Amino acid sequence: MKIIDLSHTIQADMPVFPGTAPPMLEAAHDIARHGFSETMLHMLSHTGTHIDAPSHMLPQGKNLDDFPIEQFFGVALIIDFPHCAGTSIEFKSLQQMREKIAHAEFVLFNTGHSQKWGAKEYFADFTTLSEAAAAYLAGFPLKGVGIDAVSFDPLEQSGNPVHHILLNKGMILIENLCNLREVKGEYCMFAALPLKYGGADGSPVRAIAIDMETKFYSDKI
Domains of the chain by range and CATH? Predict the structure, then answer.
């Protein structure tokens, strides 16, 4: 068994969504003066590798703390789309993977864009989902969908239609994943556990993939 960290490190100089505040990490106590160390964290709920709850976009949508813990763990299918940089993943491409998607609880898109993390190019020409592709995924009983980019919608797209399509189905969305290329198989066990705070429209997560032998999934696929 191999556990792969799919999360970016939270730090003061990290990339953040354009127009939003970066996190602040302040030393509230230190060992020399207080006998213990403690850090004051100031950050938005959608900092770094994070989950979008339905309430992030929908007035009556669920918060993360409304979901059972099982929502954040399950079998994930990793789909590689390295050829789609700056374009969108289309319905026809996903339709060819219908059987594989049907055996998954999460779909994670590995576009290779996470390699640009820390560069200004990270917020440009990233792969997104077309509305038709999102509607197709919404037809499966998935717990969530993830991607190694800043958003499922282009930054210049008004209204965030892909978010709305998926969140309206009660899914969670995981953005800014990384290291998906390190997962060997098509399927893995996936976990993205949010902070448990009241009214959570989103939360930074420590997302992981558990890369295990194919036989582990024999009862799933």
Answer: 2-11+44-217 (3.50.30.50)
